Amino acid sequence: MSEPESYAVEDTSAAKRQATPEGIEAFRAARYGLSAHWGLYALVGRGEWVLHTASMPHGMYRDLVKSFDAPRFDAGEWADLMLESGQKFLLVTTKHHDGFCMWDTALTDFRVTNTPLGRDVIGELAAALHACGLGLHFYYSLLDWTHPAYRKDWPAYVEYYQGQLRELLTNYGKIDGVLFDGYWPRFDFSDATAHFRPGGEWDLAGTYDLIHELQPHAVVVNNHHVPPLAGEDYQVWELDMPGENTIGFNTTEIGDKPTAVWWNLNSGWSYNPRNHAVKTATEIVSRFLKAQSRDAAFFLNVGPRPWGDIHPDEARVLRKTGAMLRRYLG
Questions:
Q1: What CATH superfamily is the domain 5-329?
Q2: In terms of CB atoms within 10 Å, which of 19, 72, 150, 244 comes out highest?
Q3: For 100-144, what is each residue's pLDDT tens digit?
Q4: β-bridge mates for residue 41, sequence order
């Protein structure tokens, strides 16, 4: 069955801006960053897609807000671990597909400051990273399974998500990049994933220009599994090397932008104690060096625990990886 016209790759040729040459060069020079998937889903411990995969009622999922306490969350400890591990920037989930926001957004009450934790996670991480000279990239899901406008009032949803980006890009100092997820124009939508479907165009050209206007050095990427569009600054492969599609949903087409590899340290993206299988430092170093041989940046993902700390097994391997890379790279 052919893809509906409304889900064709969006035309972003109207985008007028790109990241500055300095911003792109800084991204290429950084080479190695930490990625973290953390949100309400950590409380369930069955993956960041659990609202969908377990068919959880939205009301039950929203009730997790009452239990999100994270007494061990310490942004300074995250930054220290990154320094020990040789990582230069953090890519952190600000909002995943579940719609829960990890900062003090004024645009929804489905946010971290309405939990028992009651603190702005993104704000604390921004302060800690900036104090250590580390970069900060935001993961933001365009797809939203819980915001009512996503399914009922598309223009209102576009205004909502662009308003959230304006908050993120004006309230937390220098931002080095934005990674979008949840827009997959080649995705084969079925009845089970009907709630994934966008209600129209995202105004990606306007969004990319907004980012580059507010944060001129920030590099923009969209994990849409197609070649880079106008206004995007690099191309990312999820669990694959550039030009490879061993995972089944990446593109083998390489555009004319810098490239990045996004890999996970555990067997999944977020905290899942039932499927805990941390890779070895040797595996990570091998994958990192392979990415470097292709001039690709390398993101390594961890899934912080409900308590707000990075799993001790993951932290141990990160430190060992850092020590090995120092021996290899000096």
A1: Glycosidases (3.20.20.80)
A2: 19
A3: 999 999 999 999 999 999 999 999 999 999 999 999 999 999 999
A4: none
Structure tokens at 150: 């996503």
pLDDT for 215-246, tens place per residue?
999 999 999 999 999 999 999 999 999 999 99
Asked whether 22 and 215 are in contact (CB, 8 A), the reply is: no
| Packing angle, helices 204-214 and 154-170, rounded to 10 | 20
List of residues 6+ apart from 196 with CB closer than 8 A: 143, 182, 184, 187, 189
H/E/C letters for each residue in the chain? CCCCHHHCCCCCCCCCCCCCHHHHHHHHHHCEEEEECCCCHHHHCCCCCHHHHCCCCHHHHHHHHHHCCCCCCCHHHHHHHHHHHCCCEEEEEEECCCCCECCCCCCCCCEHHHCCCCCCHHHHHHHHHHHHCCEEEEEEECCCCCCHHHHHCHHHHHHHHHHHHHHHHHCCCCCCEEEEECCCCCCCCCHHHHHHCCCCCCCHHHHHHHHHHHCCCCEEEECCCCCCCCCCCCEEEECCCCCCCCCCCCCCCCCCCCEEEEEECCCCCCCCHHHCCCCCHHHHHHHHHHHHHCCEEEEEEECCCCCCCCCHHHHHHHHHHHHHHHHHHC
Between the alpha carbon of residue 93 and those of residues 97, 125, 137, 196, 210, the distances in Å are 10, 12, 9, 19, 20
Per-domain boundaries in the chain = 5-329
8 Å CB contact between 219 and 27: yes
Instruction: Report how far apart, in Å, the C-alpha atoms of 228 and of each of 60, 162, 205, 237, 250 are.
Output: 38, 20, 12, 11, 13
- d(CA 209, CA 150) in angstroms, rounded, equals 22
**Distance in Å from the first CA to the final CA of the chain:** 53
Whole-angstrom distance, CA of residue 158 vs CA of residue 209: 14
